[in-house]
Amino acid sequence: MIQVHDLHRHFGGFRAVDGASLTIETGSITGLIGPNGAGKSTLFNVIAGVLPPTSGRVVMDGEDITGLAPHELFHKGLLRTFQLAHEFSSMTVRENLMMVPGAQAGETLMNTWFQRARIRDEERALRKKADEVLEFLTISHVADEKAGNLSGGQKKLLELGRTMMVDAKIVFLDEVGAGVNRTLLGTIGDAIVRLNKERGYTFCVIEHDMDFIGRLCDPVIVMAAGKVLAQGPADHIMQNEAVIEAYLGTGLKNKVAAEIAVEHGHGAQPGMGGVEA
Ligand SMILES: Nc1ncnc2c1ncn2[C@@H]1O[C@H](COP(=O)(O)OP(=O)(O)OP(=O)(O)O)[C@@H](O)[C@H]1O
Ligand SMILES: [Mg+2]
Fold this sequence. Notes:
Blueprint: E1 2-11, E2 14-24, E3 29-33, H1 40-47, E4 55-60, E5 63-64, H2 70-75, E6 78-80, H3 93-98, H4 109-114, H5 116-136, H6 152-163, E7 170-174, H7 182-199, E8 202-206, H8 210-216, E9 220-224, E10 227-232, H9 234-237, H10 241-263
Parallel strand pairs: 3-8, 3-9, 6-7, 7-8
Antiparallel strand pairs: 1-2, 1-4, 4-5, 9-10
Helix pairs in contact: 6-7
Bound molecules: adenosine-5'-triphosphate (ATP) and magnesium ion.
């Protein structure tokens, strides 16, 4: 679905993304991991049109989408969430969802004068859709709450919910699990899997929690220092020497490799999650 060719994004002389090439297959939940500062969010920002690339190309379903604006990509079904949730805090949760589709009839003055019935119908449909999304995400009970009052995890669910208000094809999730408690992380994971299976969403997921990545993602792409280091099934990736080195440096490599060998098959991958570079 998405092909990234030799992508660069430099900030002055600093190469945040330094020749990254990767493919995201249609229907996959692709994981994107790597130490802090690896260039993951910058790569997302370039793909999603938030930042122009210094060079390189992004292709979606055979069409060159390099440098298109976020709203153009939005209309093609390419959506992203942000590492830090950016809800409209003084609006209710339901209102936050209802405003996503944009270009609604109620937005121009002429329409408000002449098309009241149409606006009313549209609002009713949006409200119904928002309530369905909230139910899907198991947060119907906060529909009328101001979004600013939500917990960190609930805000992340709301971010995911925003992608469900339109017909998304591919969704880029930047650390959707960061600062989220275990229960909500499970809910977020379940919602991602259901959206993938039932609605055909393709996902690319940045996350530091290796349990979460291991449970959800295939394949997993590893970035370090702006480049793609490895790509493959989660269990292979987590035993990959270059990957372990990128996270931890050579000193800890052998110790962690031993731990991973012991843990392999039990899900948990100690030492890989949340490690600061
Ligand atoms: N606007 C900017 N100007 C200058 N440097 C930047 C800018 N944005 C990011 N960087 C730098 O680029 C590098 C990559 O940052 P990025 O946020 O993409 O990393 P990341 O892999 O998402 O890390 P994390 O896991 O901590 O979120 C970092 O060293 C960061 O300081
Ligand atoms: Mg980031």
